[in-house]
Structures are given as structure tokens and as C-alpha cells.
């Protein structure tokens, strides 16, 4: 529901139409009550506020710009902006929309302070949105300029997306109820009903009623009456009326003279301030030239021998440490390759033994089962090659990677680099912005909207600490398998299909050999255990060939039946048809028709799909688990799915219900906790409820085997879930480290006092 109070009609039709569009967008959002104030004059002679939106958890000042096009911002806080190559100023006496917001925010806060208690509203958190009427394109200086703006200031191309933006700007510092809004709206309408009507003519000024001067005089009188009514409603009834008493003409003339004098002083002060600004700019330019000259002289100066030697020594130590880590990685890769080769050899031995048993000539007898079908089946089944076995025990069908997985989440703000490990890598900062509307990153930023539209953006700094797994040998991709849904060079372009893929766009059926390789991991363990028994069986077959040949054939037949029976347990894999993506079973038969712009592999029975530019989840039967309505989504982990709306993050419960809170950043749930970031810093949640006084960290990462890596003001350390309940218990046995990586295989690499080493879960150094 929207409560409306329009203090006075807008003098120009463009702003009136834009205000009507703002009202329509708020009325379409039935989930939250709003109070919309329009054309509000808070002081006589001051420029009116275009619009103010008051919600239970937000007070937002709107600056309406009934235009659109190419926007340029040479400077944020002073000077005019550029729109389509022409100057874009703010309202009356304002250089630009940001300057208008900054000054009117202070006026609005002073006006609201008698109305609300500090517990109801912290007026420092009044936000501002510049609403343009038409779409925008940003120049190269826009993002850099907006990075200097406070977190509560944003730009919006069109009022249709305003409700979602207001939900992103919601803050617990504003805590009003629906009853508060309704009561305030009733009071505003009551005083509006008692305010004097606007004059319809201007005879006192000597102007014709239909001239622009008369219209302006009438509007000014009307706005003045509204302002006086507001002033009386706030309890300032002791202020004398503006009407001139009888016989006070001389006093009125003196007041007019004083007003003229004050206006001259104001103009003089503005001229002085402008001159001072120019002088400051001149001094700043001179300072920049001096700095450039000093840098040039410093570059030409000879290096200090002692410092250069120390730097060279430190560089050598870092190089040696890097070489040692690379050697460890190569050793791990070699060990993995050796294990794969050993498993491949065992599989080959098993295949050869089966072939030998099947090839033993035996005269048929009525009592023995016919071995011919078993031999035929064994002959038709392709043997696994060393290359396939050594490369990967998983299916050789390479599924496409959905863009939601590629760019879904970013890394934490100012995350200190961690020591490279074979199991973890340092998080790298990244910012995801909307393609058609780049939104600046805010100063401090894991942050649901009802059915949000795709391709959304939020002016928050989406900085997100997701530890990246170290690179492992990639599985070979079958020549006929579809590749990633977006090419690596340009995620917006679909990846080229394989040369062997039919030109008609029909789905390609994976061959049986590829599926047998996919079951290699399962067959390896069974084959290794069966080799000794099959060797004994072969020895017995030489002594009693007729009796045991049937048993050997039965073993082969059971193995083939087991393999084909487990084909149905493989999750569907993506396939491409006519430029769209769907899912097919192990036989290549479509089970989910090709209807998605991109499709990710199934994970835990769910897969990320893209439709109409938004992302959601489907199950293996093609049923929609989460509708395609998010800018990015991860499958459910720990009972919750992480989603991104623009640059804000939240979570979904099993039923698809969004959390009530949004975060600047967030990690997936792991071991019952998820690390999230809001304006206070990083902390942990264990469900939809956010703790009132959480333990705050500089950085926080996911729990692994009961331990989580965090950064405190004095360095990195590791904590258990008990620390969240009682921080006074401390972090022993772990100390403070300059750098740290997550635990893997019971060990973690840390750097302390300039020395890098491994520790175990007891905090002891691993020799």
C-alpha cells in the first residue's frame, strides 16, 4: 500500500509525469507499505524536494531527472555533470544532482528530527537515488567518480526498478512500523486539508493571470502556505504570520532592503567561495606537478646499497620458497599420475584375463551353459585404455559451465594474499557490475526480492572471499561432447560445438566406450579385488575347463549387467540442440528438452540453468526447484542456496523462501555456518536469523573439518564454532600469522615472523 502526500503540483509536466511513474512502481510492489511525499517545501525560499519515500526500514530522498542518455561526471561534489554532451545541473542553486542530494538530505534530517526518536530512525542513514526517466550509458569517468560517493547514494535508469533498489537500501538503523506510516500520512493529509487554497489569480502583482510571472507568483504563494502549515504542524505556532500588520509598511520596506542586502552578501560570498575553489585547484595542480618532478628525480637517483641488498636477499628467499612449492605440486601430480597408471594396469590385466577365459575352446555339453553370448558380449565391450584410465575416473562427457558458476560470486574486500598451496589459492578481488548499467562499488559491503527481474544491479561493493581450489589435471573431453555454454574469451558468445557434432543440432549420443570409462572409478576397486580370485579361477580352468568355463562366462555376464544397470544412476548431462541447452541420459536420449541459454552439470541432484538472462535450479526430472529469477545462484549446500541479486547476496531455504537479510558478500554454508559481510564486517550465521551482536572479523572463511580461517586486527588465526559463542575462550592452540591458508589433509601453511611453514590441527609445526 502507498500513502501519498503531494504538497503542491509540480510546475513542469515532465517531473509530474516522472513522479506519477514513481508512484505506479511503488503501488505495484504490494509486499511493503510506503509513504510517498512529493514536491515538498521545507523552508521558505528553498528549492522543493522532488520526492521522499519512507518505508519501515528506509528513508530515501529522490532527485528526479526527466531525461536520459550518455552520462559523464567530471567531478562528483562540485561542478555540473554532462548528459548527452550538455551540462546537467541539479535543482535551484545546485551544481549537480549529488550536491542537491547532499544539501537536501541535511534539510530533510533537520525536519524529521522532531518527528522520530533516535530509536525509530538514525537520520544519518537517509539514502538518495537519482532517478532518470530514460536509460543511461556511462562514460569512463562515472564509475571512478561514484566510488567517492557514500554507500547510500545511487543512480537509477527508470523508476520501474525502484522498489527492488529500495529493498537493497533497507537498513536496521531505520525501524518504523506500518502503523507509524499510516499515522503520519493521516496527519499530513489533515494539515493539507486545513491549509489555505492556492490563489487562482495574481492581481496584487499587477500581472495578468495567464502570464508565466503570475503562475510563478501563485505557485510561490501556494508553496509558502503549505510550508507554514507544515511548520505549524511541527509545533512552531509561536512563529509570527507573514502577513504585514496594519501600519507596518515602513517596517516592511526596511525588511525588503535588508533582504536585498543579504542577497548581495550571499552573492558576494558565493563569488568568494568560487575564487577560493579556483585558488585551491591551482595549488592542487602545482602540487601534482611537484610530486611528478620528485618522482622523476627519485627514479634517477642511485639505489641505496644496503636496501638494495636486503631486497635482493628477500627476493631470493621468496623465489626459493616458490620453487619448493612448485616442486611439491609437481610431486603431487606425479604421484597422482602413477596411481592412475597403476589402476589402469589392473584394469587391463582384468580385461586380458576375461578375454583369455572367454577364448578357451571347449566342446559343448548339455549340462554346461552356453558361453557364446558371454564371449560375444566380452568381445563387443571396449577395453579401457591407459589414457582414459589415467586421465580421470569420471565420465568423459564435458558439460557446459553456466555463466552463473563462472561469475556468480566475487572475493573479499582487501583480502590479504594467502600462501599458494596445492589445495588452496589466495582469493583475488573482483567486482561484478551490470552490463547496461555499471554500478559503483560502495565503501563497505553478502546481501530477497519478490520475483526479481533478471540482469539486475545493486550499488554495493560485491567483494566476496571464496577460496579457490588449486588446479588439478583436467579430465579429457570427448570430441563429440558439448563444451562450455560460454566461451572463455567472451562469456557472452556461445561456445562453438564440436567438429563431430551433427550440423542439424540433434543431440549427440555418447558411445558405450565413453560410459565404460565413466564407470572406471567404480570398476577399478572391484577389478583390483577380483584379480587374485580370477587368477585362481584361470588356474582351475586349465585343470577343469568344461566346468569352470561356464562360471567364467557367468562372471563376465554379471560384470556387464552390473555396468549397464549402473548407467541409470548417472545424472543427466548437458547437450546442445539448435543453440539451446538441455539434458540427456547416458544413452544420449534427451530427458530435459533443450530450452536453456546455458546449463551447468548436476550437483547433488540439482543443476544451475539460465533462462531469459536469469538463473535458477532444476532437478534431474526437469522440475523447477528455484525459478530463473536471480543474477547468480549456487546449488543447495548445508540446506541453503546462495543467490546474488545485482551485487547483493542472500540465501534460499529448502522451500525457496529468501532470507530477510541481504549482505554485501557471503560464502556458502559449510558445517552449519556461513560467513557473511555487512556494514559491520565479516561474521557467521547458522540459519535465516542474523545475530544481534555477532563476533566481527576482518575476514572470515568457511569451516573445514571443524576449523575456520579468520583475520583479526592482529593477524590471521583459526577458530572453532565454540569461539563464536564465547570469544573470550581465545584461539589457542593457534597463534597469529601474517598469512595463512585453509587446512587440507590435516595441514595448513602459515607465515609467522617472515617464515613460512606447515602446522597441524593442534597448532604444532609439521617438520
From TrEMBL:
Residues 373-385 have a biased composition (Low complexity). Keywords: Coiled coil. It holds the Pfam family WG_beta_rep. It comes from the Bacteria. The keyword Flavoprotein does not apply. Residues 252-360 form a coiled coil. InterPro entries: WG_beta_rep. Residues 365-385, 426-448, 479-510 are annotated as: Disordered. The keyword RNA-binding does not apply. PANTHER family: DUF3298 DOMAIN-CONTAINING PROTEIN (PTHR37841:SF1), GLR2918 PROTEIN (PTHR37841). This is WG repeat-containing protein. The lineage of its organism: Bacteria, Pseudomonadati, Bacteroidota, Cytophagia, Cytophagales.
